């Protein structure tokens, strides 16, 4: 069957599945809308969390980034998984015991302050909205590349699908679609990886293949890769640092703390029945995530080697441009791959030196998107990658939209402006908030602000510097009071925003950066994307200092802290 | 609170913190330790085709994280039972 027809069929079938689930799992109460009724099995929640967490960036971009960063790309691998250890030990079980619907709700009650709750809502909305733009773009791009429809139309279709299952089903609909989406995306990611590993090393496990010898030789794959890259003038793959060890340290720590502090991930743990389930569920979530995250570096190394081999040509003197393979031509059309015959010999020269290098554009996303074609896999595998990319983007978008809409309907409307509305009215309000959030996210996807590219990193920086410290201190310290928490959140947020803006421009507008992107002005050589860890440290220090000189929290709050530290006496998640 | 006594409550929290401390130390050691700070030194050893530091950064730390969470869940389950504060 033709590739395009096949892609339509597979993507269409996956969409029908999501809509079918939506109709089957309509939410009838706010409890179902916000926390899926609180009865989700820990393994099922783990799977849903994995899809919720793994976004278009994990599925499409990460392996490509690592392919070019080598060892330096480990910051993403460790950072985006290590955060779950923090989440499991420092946040999830206690917040589940607290037994309410949203993250700002906890902050509002623990710090006995509406102001604290509103500050938390603001932090949540900033990081979730910046994050959702990337997902909407991912949906549009996947459609335009694989189905050859316009970016705009692709985005509308994506919005329509999310609208159906998120507005109808709320958290309940999202949970069950996310489970289906996890299955689609993990299948789509691992199948090509297994094929490539078999081709190159003969091992069906990419994780082992990356550490094995190449088929028909005694040379290890990674040694070959190191050697070939050095010959071309690139850095050695397995030892190439990301700027410096200190920067890698800060980057990894920022991503870890940010991961643990992202509200759309935290609220997933409100859906399980018990505290012990929340702990186990975090383990399952990371296990499901680890399947992709340990496969990705194998894809990176193997795809990089394949790519270099292809550019080398059959005789090793450079690929003859006229004889380039079909996938090369396909991706040239999209502009993701660009060749310029600088020396006019009709052959591809691909080396590190930009003055000589003739592959002027190799978009990093190619590594995952074109991987099956480069490895000459059957068409249905290529079609599957399209469905997988869409599943990754849609599942994360839905989780983020739920976090945003519940913060608006539950925290702002019910919590602050209209405390007397009935449950039915709140449910209607949350559906309207969800619809508005989808329209807003779609608008930002259609008219991406200039700063869209830098924003996902910002989302992590903000979650790390504002939300995580406030939650952790709220659980592990009885002494932190509302003054300390509010001052800490604002200080962490402020320092991080200030650092990012001074190097990347205010609101990322070019020309407004006052210290420039110049590395020599970086604090200790730490890049702006890695600054969340410093912001978090500032938050902790300020929160402690301010709490020390102001009055201790009331005894009811100290009792609340005692209460959430112990599993016994858990209530089903409910409003009060 | 469901504890028999104030002392029990304190002991429970102390044991809990100790477990968290041990697991966090391992969490730190495999990722920031073996994966970053000691990676260059560890790279002189090998695990098949992997240099050891590189392996920790791209594989080993992730496996360890998964194990850490399941160990935490199991040990906490035991601790809850020991002090009579488990949910079931």
TrEMBL record, chain A:
Main subcellular localisation: membrane
CDD domains reported in the protein's UniProt record: SLC5sbd_u4 (cd11480)
Alphabetized InterPro entries for the sequence: Na/Glc_symporter_sf, Na/solute_symporter, Na/solute_symporter_CS, Na/solute_symporter_VC_2705, Sodium:Solute_Symporter
Record's keyword terms, sorted: Cell membrane, Ion transport, Membrane, Sodium, Sodium transport, Symport, Transmembrane, Transmembrane helix, Transport
Subcellular location: Membrane
Bilayer topology annotation: Multi-pass membrane protein
Alphabetized PROSITE patterns for the sequence: NA_SOLUT_SYMP_2, NA_SOLUT_SYMP_3
A molecular function GO annotation: symporter activity
Transmembrane intervals: 6-24, 53-71, 77-95, 116-133, 153-170, 182-200, 248-270, 282-303, 380-408, 429-446, 452-473, 485-502, 522-546
GO biological process, one term: sodium ion transport
Superkingdom per UniProt: Bacteria
A cellular-component GO term for this protein: plasma membrane
Similarity section: Belongs to the sodium:solute symporter (SSF) (TC 2.A.21) family.
PANTHER family in the cross-refs: NA(+):SOLUTE SYMPORTER (SSF FAMILY), SODIUM/PROLINE SYMPORTER-RELATED
Annotated NCBIfam families: Na_symport_lg
Entry protein name: Cation/acetate symporter
Organism from which the protein derives: Litorivivens lipolytica
UniProtKB/TrEMBL annotation, chain B:
InterPro entries: Na_symporter_ssu
Tree of life domain: Bacteria
Pfam families in the record: DUF4212
Keyword annotations: Membrane, Transmembrane, Transmembrane helix
Domain Sodium symporter small subunit: 9-86
Ranges annotated as spanning the membrane: 21-42, 54-73
This protein's name: Putative solute:sodium symporter small subunit
């Amino acid at each position: 069957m033709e590739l395009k027809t096949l892609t339509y069929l597979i993507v269409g079938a996956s969409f029908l599945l999501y809509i079918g689930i939506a109709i089957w799992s309509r939410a009838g109460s706010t409890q179902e809308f916000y926390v899926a009724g609180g009865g989700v099995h820990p393994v099922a929640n783990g799977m849903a969390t994995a899809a919720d967490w793994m976004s278009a960036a994990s599925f499409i971009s990460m392996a490509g980034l690592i392919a070019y960063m080598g060892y330096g790309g480990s910051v993403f691998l460790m950072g985006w998984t290590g955060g779950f250890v923090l989440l499991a030990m420092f946040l999830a079980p206690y917040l589940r015991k607290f037994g309410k619907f949203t993250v700002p709700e906890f902050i509002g009650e623990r710090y006995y302050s509406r102001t604290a709750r509103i500050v938390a809502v603001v932090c949540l909305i900033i990081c979730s909205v910046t994050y959702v733009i990337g997902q909407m773009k991912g949906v549009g791009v996947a459609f335009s590349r694989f189905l050859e429809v316009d970016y705009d139309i692709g985005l509308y279709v994506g919005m329509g699908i999310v609208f159906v299952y998120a507005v109808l089903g709320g958290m309940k609909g999202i949970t069950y679609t996310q489970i289906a989406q996890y299955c689609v995306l993990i299948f789509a990611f691992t199948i090509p990886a297994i094929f490539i590993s078999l081709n190159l090393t003969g091992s069906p496990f990419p994780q082992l293949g990356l550490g094995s010898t190449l088929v028909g030789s005694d040379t290890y794959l990674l040694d070959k890769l190191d050697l070939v890259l050095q010959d071309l003038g690139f850095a050695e793959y397995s030892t190439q640092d990301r700027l410096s060890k200190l920067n890698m340290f800060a980057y990894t720590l920022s991503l870890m703390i940010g991961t643990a502090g992202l509200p759309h991930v935290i609220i997933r743990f409100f859906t399980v029945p018990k505290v012990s389930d929340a702990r186990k569920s975090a383990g399952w979530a990371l296990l499901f995530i680890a399947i992709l995250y340990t496969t990705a570096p194998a894809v990176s190394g193997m795809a990089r080697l394949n790519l270099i081999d292809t550019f080398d040509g059959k005789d090793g003197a450079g690929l003859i441009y006229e004889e380039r393979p079909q996938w090369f031509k396909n991706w040239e059309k999209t502009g993701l791959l660009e060749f310029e015959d600088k020396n006019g010999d009709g052959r591809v020269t691909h080396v590190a030196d930009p003055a000589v290098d003739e592959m002027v554009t190799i978009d990093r996303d190619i590594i995952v998107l074109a991987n099956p074609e480069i490895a000459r896999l059957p068409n249905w595998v290529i079609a599957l990658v399209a469905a997988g990319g869409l599943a990754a983007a849609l599942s994360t978008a839905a989780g983020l939209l739920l976090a945003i809409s519940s913060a608006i309907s539950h925290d702002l409307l019910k919590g602050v402006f209209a405390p007397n509305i009935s449950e039915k009215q709140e449910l209607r309000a949350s559906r309207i908030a969800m619809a508005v959030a989808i329209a807003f996210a779609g608008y930002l996807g259609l008219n991406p602000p200039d700063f869209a590219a830098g924003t996902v990193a910002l989302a992590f920086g903000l979650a790390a510097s504002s939300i995580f410290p406030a939650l952790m201190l709220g659980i592990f310290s009885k002494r932190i009071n509302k003054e300390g928490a509010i001052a800490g959140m604002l200080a962490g947020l402020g320092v991080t925003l200030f650092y990012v803006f001074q190097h990347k421009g205010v609101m990322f507008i070019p020309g407004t950066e006052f210290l420039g992107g110049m590395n020599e002005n970086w604090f200790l050589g730490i890049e702006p994307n890695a600054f969340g860890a410093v912001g978090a440290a500032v938050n902790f220090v300020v929160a402690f200092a301010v709490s020390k000189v102001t009055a201790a929290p009331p005894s009811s709050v100290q009792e609340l802290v005692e209460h959430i530290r112990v599993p016994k006496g858990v209530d089903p998640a409910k409003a009060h | 609170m469901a504890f028999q006594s104030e002392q029990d409550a304190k002991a429970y929290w102390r044991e809990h913190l100790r477990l968290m401390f041990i697991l966090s130390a391992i969490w730190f050691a495999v990722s920031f330790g073996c994966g970053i700070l000691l990676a260059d030194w560890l790279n002189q050893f090998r695990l098949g085709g992997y240099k050891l530091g590189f392996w920790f950064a791209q594989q080993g730390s992730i496996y360890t994280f998964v194990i850490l969470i399941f160990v935490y869940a199991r040990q906490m389950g035991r601790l809850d039972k020991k002090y009579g504060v488990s949910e079931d």
